[in-house]
Amino acid sequence: MQERRAPGLGRTASIMEAPLLKLTANARLPADVISLGQGVPFFGPPSEAVVAAGRVAGSQEGFCYTRDEGLLELRVALSKKLQSENGISADPADQIMVTSGSNQGFINALLAISEPGDEVIVFSPYYFNHVMAMQMSGCKPVFVDTDRDHQPDLEALGSALSERTKAIITISPNNPTGAVYSTPVLGFINSLCRDRGIYHISDEAYEYFHFEGSEHFSPGSLDPGMSHTISLFSFSKSYGMPGYRVGYVAYPAHLHKEMLKVQDTIAICSPALSQHAALAALEVGSGYPRSFLGVMQEVRDLFKTGLSGMDGVRLPRTFGGFYFMLDLDTDKTSSEVALSLMENYGVITAPREMFGGTTCALRISYANIKPEKARVGLARLKDGLSKIL
Predict the structure, then answer these.
(1) Which CATH number goes with the domain that contains 220?
(2) Model pLDDT, residue 357
(3) What does the radius of gyration of the chain's CA atoms come to, in whole angstroms?
(4) Is the pTM of this model over 0.90?
């Protein structure tokens, strides 16, 4: 009898494993481990959002589908927010979609604009979920380096363009580096996309998290006709509600039917009760996330002061988001350093390999914890690095 063989794997076989899951899957974690790894805000949603979700949870408003693109009243509120805070003019009828987090908004957009074999330019260090989505959709990621403080190399960007380029992605404030791109840099990239007839995908999940005088700029504000700019936003980071899985994307009207095809196939709609929570969060307003900036600044300062002057450690100058990318002078890989820090010193960090590149560096998320726990985490990190490097 012929031996039976299991069916083979598909397109995901050559794609990296979910990096944060892989990082901790086989590690021997101490019971009191402190995570500086995943970017989860230390604060939760406003109480109004929780109440709104609970109010509809047992009714048809909460357990039935909404329209694929989201609740009309939420899209109208988002349109007003985008105009007043971001300078983006987006029609709620056919230029705004509510998604199950901004990651879903990204892959919706990618599938709507690309063909297999198209190239998408991304700055390195990169956000791994963006690259995974490109690979799943059959696109080729083209990596462009950044400078020592993780600002885009615009000359290298020009050299990376080809006839197959379909989009350029920017993340500002940046994940994983915390870099904030200036208005002239984002304006140059947006104009380049316009002139080349390609899309500018702007990920702005960390729009409210700016420090030391930096300010947010939305490149979609330079595209009044919404012809080539796709802008991604998230309630997960802004309003402390990652488990609700709700974000939104603003896009050119000519993509609307294509976006709906993907949305209807992948999710149909973002969870209805999460959309009601998001609407309530918007009504509370951006003063809510900004109210936590003082605590986050205190934690930033603890790490900046505590790591300053350490042998073999360099902290690039960055001004936003939830993260530092800590450069390390060692022959060890960043995964080796991260594993030792987890198992032997009780602190989780994210190794540079997750984000591309071979130099040794660790992403530190300072938004996860309040100052008291940050002091403990910093002490463990310093102790570990002083002995590992």
Answers:
(1) 3.40.640.10
(2) 85
(3) 21
(4) yes
